[in-house]
Write a structure and sequence with these properties.
This protein has 2 domains: 336 residues, no CATH class; 94 residues, no CATH class. The chain is elongated, with a radius of gyration of 31 Å. By secondary structure, it is α/β, with parallel strands linked by helices. It starts with a strand and ends with a strand.
Length: 537
């Protein structure tokens, strides 16, 4: 792998994100620690506290993994986490089909690489944890995969409707077969295809839940790298955080103000990533539907369910598994469960963490390191070859295709063909003046023949000029097609490749161990999180 980079400012990253990377001190009031500072990492490692009873956590995690069918591969890491001085580097993501977009993989690689790095630097056990967002219920958001197909980028959707349940509950039905064939038909058969489909089919099959399929898939890719998988969609884990779920209701005014104070401050300087609401909990009804809880004074409602504050707090304490945290409460729950040194976040997550510092403090906790994930664009050899034939830098292809085409045509228009041939014609006419005079003195009757000869020169020049124009047009068409192809591969669907393309596309072409190789490269070169990486395969 040949790894180069470009700055975040050249791409579609927010001002908040680029400031976080390049000028962290401007954001000190929103985040507790600078993750790119070795001193801050050391300081946070010494201050990790506030998480649940470790023995109870270990028991719950063992049961969680047993129910997912992956407990055998996780036992060593769970034992490691049971040590009193063990820390965790955590990341998380929705349960996308076939692992979701490839940035899910980059998040995971970052988490594993940093856990190893911190373990060595801090001389303490550090466990990488993948937190499945297994209670999200936006089924449409996760039921797709993007492929750089035979002709274009395509987004294949799973022809299945969600039931407003946590996605982890949703069962894959027979439509998974049609989804599989649609993906497979867009990818060329390679030496790695059979192994890849054996891996996918062992997890994504009708009758399995999305939670089982996703956990099994991620586990198979990264179990040998020491990754632990977790999530809150489990009664035992919910029991451990029942007090925090209840506090989000009993201290609702303080919770709202804690979030709002930082959100408003952040919005005045940058932007507010997530809107604040009157509640940070969802209720799971008898059909396991995930329903937003709303507040009206001292009354709380979820569809036809109604409670007073006291009743709702009591119900949460009795049956915490019936309640689910939202985007603000989920990190608090996660870091209550784990001794979290740092959380590996995407740019959007990093932004909403900036709204949460006072919320952590309200729950008597301290925000962990919020670590920007590794970001990358993979440049395949076929794309690399045609990149060399065009005048644009890689990151310039983030622009609109129309702007790229216009910029290219403007460059080719710098040569004025009409002027070139006009000057050539004038030069020929001047060059013909002397021989014409000599011939006329020798034999005036040859004037007609001489005129035809000169006219023939001009006709040939006009023919040549037409060929030059046709050649330019052909070259432009070829280059414009190359521009389109590069744009589709590097910035499909108008955005970053990592947000659009499924990891299975690359695994099919380069083998299922591609991520192991990338992790090895990251480990050897160091985990540079300050730039967007360009990886040539």
């Amino acid at each position: 792998m040949d790894i180069s980079d470009c700055s975040f400012s050249e791409l579609s990253y927010s001002k908040l994100f680029t400031t976080y990377i390049n000028d962290f001190d401007k954001l000190r009031s929103f985040y507790s620690y600078n993750p790119l500072s070795k001193q801050d990492v050391q300081q946070k490692a010494e201050r990790v506290s506030g998480f649940v009873d470790r023995d109870k956590l270990i028991d719950a995690l063992n049961d969680f993994h047993s129910k997912l069918g992956i407990s055998g591969t996780q036992s060593d890491q769970i034992k490691k986490l049971s040590k009193n001085n063990a820390l965790a580097v955590v990341t998380g993501q929705q349960l996308g089909m076939y692992g979701g977009p490839v940035f899910t993989i980059y998040k995971t690689l970052t988490t594993i690489a940093l856990a190893r790095k911190y373990e060595q630097e801090l001389n303490t056990p550090v466990v990488p944890v993948f937190w499945m967002a297994d209670e999200d219920h936006d089924f449409e958001e996760i039921a797709w995969s993007g492929i750089l197909g035979r002709q274009d980028y395509i987004k294949v959707k799973l022809n299945q409707e969600g039931a407003n349940k946590p996605v982890a509950f949703e069962k894959l039905d027979d439509s998974v077969e049609a989804f599989r064939e649609a993906i497979k038909s867009e990818m060329f058969e390679t030496d790695f295809s059979e192994k890849l489909w054996d891996l996918i089919d062992s997890h994504y099959q009708a009758g399995k839940s999305h939670g089982e399929a996703f956990a099994g898939f991620i586990n198979e890719l990264f179990a040998e790298e020491g990754l632990l998988i977790a999530g809150s969609n489990h009664k035992g884990l919910k029991n451990l955080v029942a007090n925090d779920l209840a506090k989000s209701i009993s201290s609702a005014d303080e919770v709202f103000e804690a979030i709002e104070s930082k959100s408003a401050e952040l919005e005045s300087l940058f932007h507010r990533q997530v809107m604040n609401g009157d509640s940070n909990l969802f209720y799971l009804n008898e059909d396991s539907e995930r329903i937003k809880i709303h507040r009206e004074g001292e009354q709380w409602t979820a569809d036809d369910q109604k409670w007073t504050t006291k009743e709702l707090v009591s119900l949460i304490q009795e049956s915490p598994e019936r309640f689910s945290p939202n985007v603000f409460l989920r990190p608090v729950i996660q870091d209550r469960l784990f001794p979290t040194l740092g959380y590996v976040a995407g740019p959007g997550e990093l932004a909403y963490y900036g709204q949460m510092r006072a919320l952590y403090e309200l729950f008597d906790m301290e925000m962990p390191l919020i670590i920007p994930r590794y970001t990358a664009t993979i440049i395949e050899s076929g794309i690399d070859r045609i990149l060399e034939k065009l005048p644009f830098k890689v990151c310039e292809y983030a622009k609109r295709i129309e702007d790229l085409e216009s910029a290219y045509v403007e460059q080719t228009d710098n040569v004025d063909i009409e002027e070139v041939f006009s000057e050539w014609k004038n030069d020929l006419e001047k060059a013909a003046e002397k021989p014409l005079k000599v011939i006329d003195e020798i034999d005036p009757t040859l004037d007609g023949t001489v005129g035809k000869t000169v006219a023939g020169f001009e006709n040939e020049l006009n023919k040549l000029k037409g060929k030059v124009y046709r050649s330019i047009k052909q070259q432009e068409e070829t280059q414009l097609k190359r521009i389109e192809k590069i744009k589709i591969n590097l910035f499909p669907d108008g955005g970053l490749q990592e947000r659009a393309v499924s990891p299975v596309y690359f695994m099919n072409k380069y083998g299922t161990d591609i991520w192991h190789n990338m992790l090895q490269e990251m480990t050897e070169q160091g985990v540079d999180l300050s730039k967007h990486h360009l990886i040539k395969l």
